[in-house]
Amino acid sequence: SKSSDGVFPDTDSGVIGFIGAGKMATALALGFISSGLVPANRIIMSSPQSESQELKDAGINFNRDNVHVVKTSSIIIIAVKPHIVPCVVQEIAPYMKRDCHLVMSVAAGIKLEYYEKALKVGVVRVTPNTPALVGEGVSAFTLGTHCKKSVSGVVKQMLSCVGLCEEVPEKLQDTVTGISGSGPAYICIVIESLADGAVKMGMPREMALKFAAQTVKGAAKLLLETGKHPGELKDEVCSPGGTTIAAIHQLERAGLRAALMDAVETSTLKSREIG
Ligand code: NAD
Q1: Is 229 helix (H, G, I), strand (E, B) or coil?
Q2: What is the DSSP pairing of strand 75-78 with strand 102-105?
Q3: Does this complex have an ipTM over 0.85?
Q4: Distance between CA 77 and CA 88 in Å, rounded?
Q5: Would you state the pLDDT for residue 149?
Q6: How high does pLDDT run on average in the chain?
Q7: What are the DSSP E strand ranges found in 101-162?
Q8: d(C-alpha 257, C-alpha 243), whole Å
Q9: Which SS3 state, helix, strand or coil, does residue 179 take?
C-alpha cells in the first residue's frame, strides 16, 4: 500500500538520495529500481570518487557534492563507512530541514541519538545486507524519537521491496549486524568450502559452485517454507549408518557450530565497539 496522501515522506514523488556510492548503496538502489519502488531518475548518489559503471548503466543520478544530494532529496540514506559518518554529518547538518528530510543510516554501530542530536530531523537506523541487490535482503530498522509513527510504514514499504524487513529495538541492531549484516560473507565461505570439497573429489569448479550455492538456497527455502525446525530437517537427511551422519560427525568434531556462533558474537561486539 503506497502512501499517496501527501504524507511525508512519500516514495511516490520524492527523490531518494544516497550519501556514499559503495556496495551497500548500490545494492539498495538497484534493488529499489528492479522492484519498481522508484525509477532510477528519482535516485541520486554522492561520493568523492566517480561513480561505478554499474550505477551509470542503471541511469542513477550522481554528484560529488553531498550537500547537493541533501538539497534535492527527501529521503537521505547515509551509506558511508562508520568512521566517515561524523564528517558527513557535520557537512550536511546546516542544510537539514525537519519538515522536508528523513534520514536513514545504514552505518554499522552508529546510534540514533548521535544523529538526532546533530541533525535535528527524523532518523531511522537500518541494518541491511547486500542480497538486497537481488530482492533477498534482510533489513532491521529502528525509528528515532523525532520520527512520526507513519514513518514506520514508509520504511517498511521501501525495505520490503528488497527482502525481509523487521522493526527491532535499537539494542538489537548490533546483533543484526552480527547475523545478517555480516552473514552473507560467512555463507559465501561455506559455499566456497563445499565447492572446494567437491573439486577435491573430482567435480569441475563451476559445477561445484553452482551445486553448493543451490544447496544452501534450497535448504534455506525448505526451512522457511515448511516451518520445520532445522534439527528435524537435518534428521530427515541422516539415515542410520549413512553418508550424511558420517559427514556430520566430522563437522561436529571440527566445531562448525561453535565457529559460526563465535562469528556472530564477534561481529556483534565489534559493532557495539563502534557505537
Ligand atoms: P563501501 O566502502 O563499499 O562504500 C562506501 C562509500 O562511501 C564509497 O562509495 C565511498 O566513495 C563513499 N565515501 C567515502 N567518503 C565519503 C564522503 N565523505 N562523502 C560521501 N561519500 C563518501 O562500504 P559499504 O560496504 O557500502 O558500507 C557502507 C555502510 O554500510 C557502512 O557504514 C557499513 O557499516 C554499512 N553496511 C554494510 C553492509 C555490507 O554488507 N556491505 C551491510 C550492512 C551495513
Answers
A1: coil
A2: parallel
A3: yes
A4: 12
A5: 87
A6: 94
A7: 102-105, 122-127, 137-143
A8: 20
A9: helix
